[in-house]
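Q: My collaborator sent me two sequences in one message, no labels, and asked for predicted structures for both. Can we handle them in order? The first one she listed is below.
A: Yes, handling them in the order given. First sequence, followed by its structure tokens:
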Amino acid sequence: MNARMPPASLSQAPIGLSRRRTLAALGGAALVSHLPAFLPRATAQGLTKISYQTGWLAQAEHGGLYHAQATGIYKEHGLDVEIRPGGPQVNVMQLFMAGTCDFADADSFRTFAFAQDKLPAVAIAAFFQKDPRVLMSHPGTGNDTLAALKGKPILVATTGRQTYWLWLKAKFGLTEDQLRPYAFSLAPWLVDRQATVQGYLTSEPFNARKSGVEPVIHLLADQGFDNYANVTIAVPKMVKEQPELVQRFVTATAKGWAGYLNGDASAANAMIQKSNPQMGADTIAYAIGAMKQYGLVETADTRVKGIGTMSEARWKSFYDAMVAAGAQKPGVDIQTAYTLQFVAGKKNA
């Protein structure tokens, strides 16, 4: 079993969350109409117990959550947070829609799907300002830019073909005949120096180097792919009726990320490895370094507005770009699926 998040996506739920399909998966409309408003409850210590469903097994990409838990930041904010790891058989969106957790992982694409299908979820913070998706090429082959990849084989998984691949086609003129299947193994790429492969910044480059290849890394976010990642979603009723609780969680998690990336991460890493024993210390160290080097969490915006910040302008511009690329339907009121009240202009950490 892969100990790391699959690079094709940040969640195991499909991008298209059609309302009919989601309701069917949950056991019918009656279940959704009777979803619990939210699950928080008080503990004997006077803390509010809440749960967070991640998109994959415990890893450094969830470091802010684990740091806030391990160092007592959540408790300082009156919270007892249960972090529930995802995995290959975990459909995060179905669990969230079934009301089994208070908060969950998502990204911009899933947020657009919530708005399109009028599903009860709202994005409240984006803890990755940059989507970690990359393409990797071999060095010394002339594949040093995305534009240079035109006409050359690119290994892309099915999910990627519905999202960032459409953007690559629209922006860089890539074509369908370049596509090759990708089954989450670097083996075919390692033996074909002309090929490029999809990946995840904090994972595949590390594995490529362990295999003796120093890859050329094309971080899509640095080329204009403005997808928010590690987006936290909540139930709209909870946002409306308990905004102070939501704010405490967002603020504490932002502090957790600041501490994880800039302080002593050992306690959080111990929790990650306890939850996911396959996660090696070298892998965690590489992932932390990559998040810092490429500014996934901390950017010029977050230095002013705080970790987790979002903006209406960026939500709109990315949606418009995806519509133009054919990756989203036009005419969706995306403002129904996110709120800036917990992050815009707030210095959380």
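Q: And the one she listed second?
A: Here it is, processed independently of the first:
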Amino acid sequence: MIDSVSPKAVSREIASQEAVTPSRAYWNQRHVIADFLPLAEQLQNAVDCAGNLSSFQWIQLFAMTMEFKPDVILDLGRAKGNSACVFTEAANRLGSCSVISLDIENSWEEESLPNVRKIVPESWFAPLQALRTDILTFDYDKAFDNKNRVLIFWDAHGFTIAECVLGRILPAVKEKRHVVMMHDLSDARYSGEECSAPYGDQRLWKGENAEETRVLLGHISSAVAQSVAIVDFTSRNKLTLQSADQDLHSGFDEAQRAEMRRLLGDQFFSLQGHWFWFSLNEKEGPFYFPRFEPPQQSVTATPIPLISRLKMGARIALNRFKPDEIKHLEY
């Protein structure tokens, strides 16, 4: 499907000036982050699922949100609620922001929410709509109505979900300021060997989500289906799929790195990201979107098994060490 109507005129110069990057957000929001750290640790312990989102990823998402200042945040794939907690805290601090967190599963309500309620007041939940619903049939036009700045966190998996994001959600935000952040994509140039060339004993990746095998698309290493879909989409539309890892490695000088480590410590400051981001605001249209048809019956995102999530978390943790440091670690 070709969208022949260009977005509202936004020059590349303005888009460039307003562009939010992980390193810029990390640096500009460093004192706000430092203030958030005690609560962030409590919330992480309450959710108790570091394999889904590491400590430094919590803070990177928080920094990006505070820097971008969205009117609404769309959280696709809530799971136990790591990202929902991050975005709800940011929304409370921004003051005029709402969070729409979508998932078909109930692990947030049954496992995490009781623990989170012990930490924060009931008023803390005011910006959050944690909906148990089908991402494929949700009313996005209504969600984005009268909103000017939209932040989307894409952490729901599978080609069908990708078709919904690219063919349904993006057309709804193309005339708004927006940014889309994608989890579970690693930059092989800054990651461990298993994210790059060797197959080892693994067979070909065949479209599974977060299984043992990975697919390598240029420098993008992933085990989830949307990695293929987004490379196809950004290639067709000549958009830049931005690497958080590349930006973090190049965005700080030595003095800034030292200051960030002093303020946040190694747990919450890292040059690793393991996520990518993009925006249609990078250029003027026309844009090309895949056709999307809502299903007659509810089709859910492909869940990622807990053991796979834990392995992914361990992989991210080990990537923080240089290869010659890993062999000296005691297990």
